[in-house]
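Example 3.2
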Amino acid sequence: MVDILHKVGIKSSVAEAYSALTTTEGLSGWWTTDTRGKGNDIGGVLQFRFGAGGFDMKVLELDPGKHVRWEVVDGPEEWIGTHVDWNLDQVDDYAVVLFKHEGWKEPVEFMHHCSTKWAVFLMSLKSLIETGKGAPDPHDVKIDNWN
């Protein structure tokens, strides 16, 4: 199994970052404008829709200001059964986000695309929290034929 790993520092509190990861308002401000569901309830399902398709994530773990964990329950075959994990830590004036999309069976070409897109969206998360304006789909940077 292989994982996508990223780290980003956001000039904010971990509480602000946590809110952006657990509320539909926050998630739609940096990932995709078409976000539905319950991100702040364990067992809740979040639905993320993009022009090229979408994903359903079941909320597995919530530790306010520290940790969020989802399981992909619907979407592209390569994603189903993988986990998206967010660890948060306050370091001085920064909320440090350690991101992991884990459990990929193999490093297929789509994984390379997803790694870059996760980085694009993490920068959107940073922008949303620091400036009040993210770049969620459909306003994100398009990188290839998958978008």
